[in-house]
Structures are given as structure tokens and as C-alpha cells.
Amino acid sequence: MWSVRKALEKFIQSLRLTPQQREEVIRQHTVVREQLRQRLGPEMDFLSGSYSRNTVLRPLHDIDLFIVLESVDSTPPESPDAVLKRVRRALQGAWPRKELPILQQHSVHLEFSTSGIEFDVVPAFKQLGRNAYFIPERQTGRWLRTNPRLHKKRSREANEQAGKKLKPLLKTVKHWNRQQSSSPLGSFHLEAMSYDAFPEPPEGYLEGLESLFTHLSRKVLRPCSDPAGLGPDVDARMSATQRQAASQLLASAAGQLRHVLAEEETLPVQAHRRMRALFGEEYRTGGS
């Protein structure tokens, strides 16, 4: 039987995309971007979201593509709904036999059933003279300002400050969050709250995981601002009830990890049992 620390390291490794998965993702997103370039003629396009920040975990749910259509002085001339439908027509023209791409709040969703890879295509307009982009919000008909490249920079800085342990730990928390059917927490919300979790590197992954859950349980009770300092709060639609529920879930996980820290050497079987209850069958206690 592995030690709890070795089992945790193996579990963290299992959350990474395999080289074969990465190769398929690169092949697929290259094809999608080429089709969009031909049909929309954007000024630029780049990967965004958790895949670009290297905080994605498997199974891979989706990849964000940021498509900058043109530069504007102020609010784009088209409505968010019109721009999203323009992107959908381009995707439908490229893959006419597929199901109609789905219009979402900020993006258009495209799924490839063979590879299982899904894309969220986010249309954007560069704001002239500002380090910002406008993206659509379909429900309200508004244009929001953001900059995923600033998000990526903030993520990288926070990971360096944590001795490069933040991203592995964050993937572990994201996996835990997927197991919680009642969790109101989104992936980017967890990331944004984690950026100030470690003023210095944690002693190890186990200590870091307990610290991160504890930090998040407190952080979620307060509004979480956009890390780029441009858009609305990341959790703007979160209710006070949801904050309390999320805080309790995170605090409970932190409490279980404190038990694990106390039991890992004297009661390893019990400690492993607690870890599996938190992270599911993917957490293994031994093997090759």
C-alpha cells in the first residue's frame, strides 16, 4: 500500500492530459481555428480558458477559443446575439452534417462526438487604446470587458509564488468539485479565489491541499473580483445562500484533510478511506 502522500501525488498525476490527448486536442483546435479564419477573417485568435492556463483536468470537458473579430473604439456595433449567431453560421457552414452549434451566454458550443472534444468559441472585439476585449453576454444583451491573457498572467504568477504547486492542487480541488452535485462553484471561480492562497510555497501537497480548501471556504463568502480588473465580479450571480452552502462544503473537505494529516502515519487505512471519500475511485492506494 502506498503512503497517503505518494497516493496523492499519483492522483494528481492522473488528472493531467496524456500526451496522446494533448496531440488530439492540438490537431482538433488547429482545424477549428483554420475554419473560423476562413469564414470570419478575425484579426487574431488564441486559446483561452483553463486549457490555456494549464489548469484543465481530464476528462476534458471543453476548450475555449477566443476569436477577435475586429478592433473598435467603444461598444461593438452589433448586438451580442447577432455576433453569436454569426459565429454559429460559420461553424455550421464548416460542419453542415453536425448538430446545430449551441448558443450560450458568452460563446457558441461545438462538440465532436468521435474525439469527445468540445469547444466554446468566444467572439470578441479589441478595444482600441485599452488592454481589454469586449465579449457578448447574450442574456442581458450587454458587452462585457475582459482579457483572458491577463487571467493567464495572473495564474502563472500565483503558481510561481506557490512554488509551482498551485496548479496541481487546484486541479485536485476542481476534481473534488465535480463530485459535489450540490456545489454552486464554477471552475474559473475556484481559480480566481485561489490566486492569493499561498503567499509562500506550501510544505507539501497534502498540507497545501488542506490550506487551499480552508482558504477557499473563507474566500467564497466574499465577492470575487475579475482577476483582470475589467469585468464584473466572477461570482456576481451567486446568492448569499449559495455562498454559505459552498463555504460549508469546502470547510468540510478541509476538516477531513486535517484528519488525514493527523492519521497518515498512525492510521493510514483510515486516512486513505477519507481521501477516497473526497476524491472518488480515481484516488488509488496502490498499484504500478
Lay out the secondary structure.
Elements: H1 4-14, H2 19-40, E1 44-48, H3 49-53, E2 63-72, H4 80-94, E3 102-103, E4 108-111, E5 118-127, E6 133-137, E7 142-146, H5 148-161, H6 166-179, H7 187-194, H8 205-219, H9 240-263, H10 268-279
Parallel strand pairs: 2-5
Antiparallel strand pairs: 1-2, 3-4, 4-5, 5-6, 6-7
Helix pairs in contact: 2-4, 6-7, 6-8, 8-9, 9-10
How would you characterize this protein structure?
This protein has 288 residues and is an alpha+beta fold. The protein has 2 domains: 4-16 and 151-279; 19-146, Beta Polymerase, domain 2 (2-Layer Sandwich), CATH 3.30.460. The protein is 49% helix and 14% strand. It is built from 10 helices and 7 strands. The protein has helices at residues 4-14, 19-40, 49-53, 80-94, 148-161, 166-179, 187-194, 205-219, 240-263, 268-279, and strands spanning 44-48, 63-72, 102-103, 108-111, 118-127, 133-137, 142-146. Strands 1, 2, 3, 4, 5, 6 and 7 form a 7-stranded mixed beta sheet that branches. Strand 5 and strand 6 (133-137) form a beta hairpin. Helix 6 packs antiparallel against helix 7. The relative contact order is 0.13. The mean pLDDT is 95.
How many strand segments? 7
Q: What class do helices, strands and sheet pairing give?
A: alpha+beta
Radius of gyration: 20 Å
Kindly report the average pLDDT value. Answer: 95
Which series of helices and strands comes N to C? HHEHEHEEEEEHHHHHH
Low-pLDDT residue spans? none
Shape: globular
Largest sheet: 7 strands, mixed
Number of spatially distinct domains: 2
**Into which percent range does the helicity of residues fall?**
40-55%
Number of helices: 10
